[in-house]
Each structure stands twice: as C-alpha cells, then as structure tokens.
Amino acid sequence: MPSTGLENAKDILYPERGGENEPSEISSLYRKTHGNFAPGEQKKRDYEWNIDPNQHRFGYAEKKVLNGASLALHSERPEDSFPKTVIVKKTVED
C-alpha cells in the first residue's frame, strides 16, 4: 500500500496507538502464547525470589577498588597487592 506524501516509516510500522484497539484479554493471551510484547514493554515472569530483584544483580562482580585511576597511573606496585620478596640462600631454601 503506497503512502501519501512524506510519512515516517516508523510511524507506519509502529503506530502510536497500535495496541489500543484490542482488549486486554486478547493482548495478554498473545503475550503468553506468542511472546508478543509491545515495544519497550518489560517482561514480568512472576518468579518468587528470596531476594529483591530490583536491588540484586546476578553474575560476576568485581571487588570495588578505591582510587583505581590513581593506582593505574603510578608505576610502582601498591604495598598491599603483592607479597614482599624475600631473598635467601639456596641452602636455607632447601
């Protein structure tokens, strides 16, 4: 179907009131069966967590380093990062 004049393709493909025509029962059914979510709509999976999902983050987390940029700029090693090197005679080590 040809468009008339200068129209934005986004407005043609995704009208502002695209989901207002159908009742909420139908849209919830399509969400469940087809995974048909509205653009930008957040998925609610109704999990029962023992934690607050809004505060908790899953995955690998690194330990926070204070003054990380200043530590990167200094060429010497920080004192608490590496053990002190101790030089002893070979016979003592054996």
Q: CA-to-CA gap between the ends?
A: 87 Å
- Average pLDDT level: 76
The helix/strand order is HHHH
| Poorly predicted spans | none
- Shape by Cα distribution: elongated
Largest sheet data = none
Determine Rg (CA atoms, Å): 30 Å
Percent in helix: 25-40%
What does this protein look like?
With 94 residues, the chain is mainly alpha-helical. Helix content is 28%, strand content 0%. It has four helices and no strands. It has helices spanning 9-13, 24-34, 68-73, 90-93.
What's the short story on this structure?
This protein has 94 residues and is mostly helical. The chain is 28% helix and 0% strand.
What attributes does this structure have?
mainly alpha; 28% helix
Annotate the secondary structure layout.
Elements: H1 9-13, H2 24-34, H3 68-73, H4 90-93
